[in-house]
Structure formats: structure tokens, C-alpha cells
Design goal:
By secondary structure, this protein is of the alpha+beta class. β1 (about 10-15) and β2 (about 20) form a beta hairpin. The chain folds into two domains: about 5-40 and about 140-190, FAD/NAD(P)-binding domain (3-Layer(bba) Sandwich), CATH 3.50.50; about 45-135, D-Amino Acid Oxidase, subunit A, domain 2 (D-Amino Acid Oxidase, Chain A, domain 2, 2-Layer Sandwich). It has helices at about 100-120, 165-180, 185-190; strands at about 10-15, 20, 25-30, 45-55, 65-70, 75-80, 85-90, 125-135, 145, 155. The strands form three sheets. It has a five-stranded antiparallel β-sheet with strand order 5-6-7-4-8, with helices on one face.
């Protein structure tokens, strides 16, 4: 059910159709759809690019591995079961999707070229290309915990591209906070850090 995030009150929220939902506690796990006021000076939205190659006859490495460069802008890539390479990176501090097809093609061809340069004889051809938005935090950590003002409002925002890991950890942290238990990690990812 779509809810109107701007309609949150102390114990209720409204759906987009205007129906009221009452809650004892609310957990906002909305990804990057909204930079909430509590984190507005601590987060930003960036743009990234990605490709999927045409199937290869032979993979350039033997095992199922994921490569992730540590340079900035970084590049990452992995294989699929049907011998494609999925790759991405070349992030930009731009909070809008690239709509110009030629610019999108130029960026994604650069990703393919960089991978081809890493492996002798690899002739990676792009079959699909896209770009997406993602959120980052100024300290490279997610935002997980209770709102400092509205103690029954919780956030589980997995910024930094690690949403699956942060969702697992965050669910345990928030469960402890709701149950009134001390969590040894909650201070690290709290919203008012």
C-alpha cells in the first residue's frame, strides 16, 4: 500500500488514497526515496551506471568471483550463470537519471572498455545498459534507529549500497530498541550521530 510519507503524525499515517493507518511504532525502510530532515545534511543521492554483456563463450576467470576496485570512481563486475558479465560503477555526484541515450552509451561503453583492458583477449560487448540513483552518507554508514524527537518512529535506511546487509543488522537493532533492550551497535548507526 502506498503511503503519504508527509502525512506521518505521532501515531498515524495516511495512504495515498486517504485511508488512515494507526500504529504503535513505525519503521521507515524507504531506501533513497526520501532524504528525511533528520539526515538531510548527512546524505546525498548519486548516479551510477551498469551494463550486462552478451554471453561469452568462455569466462575470463575460473571461479564465481566479484571484483570491486577501491579507486574512485570505482568499477565492479561479476559473472552470471549464462556466462554474461554484469558490471557497474563510474558514479557521479548527480541526483538525476541520465536520459540522454548517447551519454548513457558513452559511459557504459567506458565500463566495458575498462574490463576489456583488464583481461587479455576479452571482447566484452554490451547487450543492456542502464543508470540508477543511490544514496550515500557522509560517514559511509547507514541510518538505523529511533528518531530523536518521535521515539516511536524508526528508520532503517541502508545507504552506501549495502541494503541487504544493513537490513538484516538493522532489523535486529530496531527490534531491540522497540523491546527496550540495549543493542551494542545502535550508537554507531544512530540518526543523530
Amino acid at each position: 500500500t502506498q503511503v503519504n510519507l508527509d502525512s506521518i503524525d505521532s501515531n498515524q499515517i495516511f495512504t495515498e488514497e486517504g485511508y488512515k493507518i494507526e500504529f504503535k511504532n513505525i519503521i521507515l525502510a524507504t531506501g533513497y526515496t526520501n532524504i528525511y530532515p533528520i539526515i538531510k545534511n548527512k546524505a546525498q543521492i548519486n548516479r551510477t551506471y551498469a551494463i550486462s554483456s552478451k554471453p561469452l563463450k568462455k569466462l575470463p576467470w575460473k571461479e564465481d568471483l566479484m571484483f570491486w576496485e577501491t579507486k574512485n570512481p570505482y568499477l565492479y563486475f561479476r559473472t552470471t550463470t549464462d556466462k554474461r558479465i554484469i558490471a557497474g560503477g563510474l558514479d557521479e555526484e548527480i541526483n538525476k537519471l541520465e536520459k540522454n541515450i548517447e551519454d548513457l552509451k558513452e559511459k557504459t561503453e567506458k565500463i566495458a572498455k575498462e574490463i576489456n583492458n583488464l583481461f587479455d583477449g576479452l571482447n566484452l560487448e554490451v547487450e543492456d545498459r542502464w543508470n540508477a540513483l543511490f544514496g550515500i552518507s557522509t560517514d559511509n554508514l547507514p541510518f538505523i534507529g529511533a528518531d530523536p524527537i518521535n521515539k516511536n518512529k524508526y528508520y532503517l535506511l541502508g545507504y552506501e549500497g549495502n541494503g541487504t546487509c544493513y537490513s538484516m543488522a538493522g532489523s535486529k537493532i530496531i527490534a531491540d530498541l522497540i523491546e527496550g533492550k540495549k543493542n551494542p551497535y545502535s550508537h554507531i548507526v544512530r540518526l543523530d550521530r
